[in-house]
Amino acid sequence: MSDLTRATAAELAGRLAAGEVSSVEVTQAHLDRIGAVDGAVHAFLHTNTDEALAAAAAVDTARAAGEDLHALAGVPIAVKDVVVTKGQVTTAGSKILEHWVPPYDATLVERLRAAGMPILGKTNMDEFAMGSSTEHSAYGPTRNPWDLDRIPGGSGGGSAAAVASFEAPLAIGTDTGGSIRQPAAVTGTVGVKPTYGSVSRYGLIALASSLDQAGPCTRTVLDSALLHDVIGGHDPRDSTSLSERAPSYTEAAKAGATGDLTGLKVGVVTELGGEGYQSGVRASFEASLELLTNAGAEIVEVSCPSFTAALAAYYLILPSEASSNLAKFDGMRFGLRVEPTEGPITAERVMAATRGAGFGDEVKRRIILGTYALSAGYYDAYYGSAQKVRTLIQRDFAAAFAQVDVLVSPTAPTTAFKFGDKVDDPMAMYLNDVATIPANLAGVPGLSLPSGLSDDGLPVGFQILAPARADERLYRVGAALESLLLAQWGAPLLSRAPELEVNA
């Protein structure tokens, strides 16, 4: 495998700046890697060879002319297919948007382009970001590079798998209830859900507008910080966008890499552990806590009692918002249109035929649940009550952060499971996000980094949560733990993953 595909984004940026390699060479190496292994992994739904190479060539020309470029200029990236890209097909993993080409770029895509980052293509996902395994994509599942018979997490399994299989050094994901962090945990990568409103949602195909947040998928904490600095910041086109200027996440990650956490208070959330957690997951988490203690951190047990109701509240709030957001896909204005084969062609019958053919079972399940929860006579009992639980969760976070600097837990209760194990049991599938959902309900930032291998030889994720608008704490603590783990392992965890079979 090319050393260019094994390098981190920070390493590639340094080599590009030094003139040791060109962006065209880096981009072509990753396109070649996609061609060699993506037939087995299926991380990408679409690749964008010509445009990516043209963007890379433009960066090389600008660098040769002595122009002042962004730190990540020339480093290629993959983008989850729920983020709209002008001139490139965007499907959200659904047949209802098959072949749809958006007429504009999402704000974060504009920022990637402005930074000179070639976009390799669009990554696979659970349809409309509904799922924890990428088994609900209308275009077939993505496979985990650690074991092709296992799921890569979801809904952003394509972005995580692309990074884990060295098809892209960086990727964009979205996280509504854990869809960046849970795939990171099961693929041995790093995933960050920023503070709600700190990365623009303009141009994200909405699932649940009060929960959705785009963020980085990478192989190191520093790479996530570098990417977060590119895509973050205020956007007047997003009414929920935060207006204040954020600190440098890159500097926070570099400061944390020293491994010194003296004086830091780390809260272990009682309700995000215990029964249901795989023994190897728990063992890896405890070993990481010991490393944090050795680095000078104080470990404190913290109770957040409302977290036990987070899953139930989430699966009323999300379907309710999804029911509203997905009403626009009606066969009338864009996307798929299916007309009834018999009888009169009316708006209602076209809409029913289009949605029946275009949406998969999981999307239909959540639309039905959300529509019921919002219906007359049930709104207060279901949606209204769920919002009250959400307030209690926010209060629990506030009380916890009054005692500690960050909160920690395992990212997911188990390692990657095999395809088909949970696809017919929605509740078992939903439980994969039990540790990640509270952060979305409260709008606080979270980071998952690999903490080792479980007794089944598969990666385990360690989750760090910080107060809203304090994302820099994630990078400081995450980089410190990463450096301690790397010193212990001697090489990045992904170096232990089996080599993928390369197409001739």
Automatic annotation (TrEMBL):
Query: Which residues does the entry assign to the active site, renumbered to this chain?
Result: K80, S155, S179
Domain (Amidase): residue spans on this chain: 25-474
Keyword entries, A-Z: ATP-binding, Ligase, Nucleotide-binding, Protein biosynthesis, Transferase
Record-listed E.C. numbers: 6.3.5.7
The molecular function terms in GO held by this entry are: ATP binding; glutaminyl-tRNA synthase (glutamine-hydrolyzing) activity; transferase activity
Q: Which domain of life is it from?
A: Bacteria
Q: Which residues cross the membrane?
A: none
- Reactions catalysed according to its record: L-glutamyl-tRNA(Gln) + L-glutamine + ATP + H2O = L-glutaminyl-tRNA(Gln) + L-glutamate + ADP + phosphate + H(+)
List the GO cellular component terms: glutamyl-tRNA(Gln) amidotransferase complex
Q: Which InterPro entries match?
A: Amidase, Amidase_CS, Amidase_dom, AS_sf, GatA
Ligase keyword on record = yes
Tell me if Protein biosynthesis is a UniProt keyword of this record: yes
**Top EC category:** ligase
In Gene Ontology terms, what is a biological process of this protein?
A: translation
Give the multimer and partner information.
Heterotrimer of A, B and C subunits.
Q: Which PANTHER family match?
A: GLUTAMYL-TRNA(GLN) AMIDOTRANSFERASE SUBUNIT A (PTHR11895:SF151), TRANSAMIDASE (PTHR11895)
What this chain does, per the record? Allows the formation of correctly charged Gln-tRNA(Gln) through the transamidation of misacylated Glu-tRNA(Gln) in organisms which lack glutaminyl-tRNA synthetase. The reaction takes place in the presence of glutamine and ATP through an activated gamma-phospho-Glu-tRNA(Gln).
Q: Which family does it belong to?
A: Belongs to the amidase family. GatA subfamily.
Specify the protein name.
Answer: Glutamyl-tRNA(Gln) amidotransferase subunit A
Q: Which organism is it from?
A: Occultella aeris
Gene this protein is translated from: gatA_2
